[in-house]
Design brief:
YjbR/MT2646/Rv2570-like; YjbR; 4 helices; 6 strands; alpha+beta
Length: 119
């Protein structure tokens, strides 16, 4: 998966913004101001950090040990680094983006969830 596909999918989700708050090499995606995905633009192959349920994170790392790693520079209990070098099925990558987005949306205050629903 390339950065354009990853970016377009993230931006297709409701309430998502993108930015470069950590410098020009890390593209950050937020829903209602909270990060759910980061992509390292200077990495070859492309790598992305995605939030993940802790139990599922461990299972994914064991099942895809070369492609799904503990989150680089993140809380390794809650974040995975996904290597986007073509070895993972794009459907799985989209599912992991959805999962990360959903986890962050669930953690939003009721007020922010309502604002998101009203968009």
């Amino acid at each position: 998966m390339n950065i354009d596909t990853f970016r377009d999918y993230c931006l297709s989700k409701k309430g998502v913004t993108e930015g470069l708050p950590f410098g020009p090499d890390t593209l950050v995606f937020k829903v209602m101001g909270k990060i759910f995905a980061l992509a390292s633009l200077d990495e070859v192959p492309l790598r992305a950090n995605l939030k993940c349920d802790p139990g599922r994170a461990v299972e994914l790392r064991e099942e895809h040990e070369d492609s799904i790693l503990p989150g680089y520079h993140m809380n390794k209990k809650h974040w995975n680094t996904v290597v986007l070098d073509g070895r993972l099925d794009p459907k799985l990558v989209f599912e992991l983006i959805d999962h990360s987005y959903d986890l962050v949306v669930e953690s939003l205050t009721q007020k922010l969830q309502k604002e998101l629903n009203d968009l």
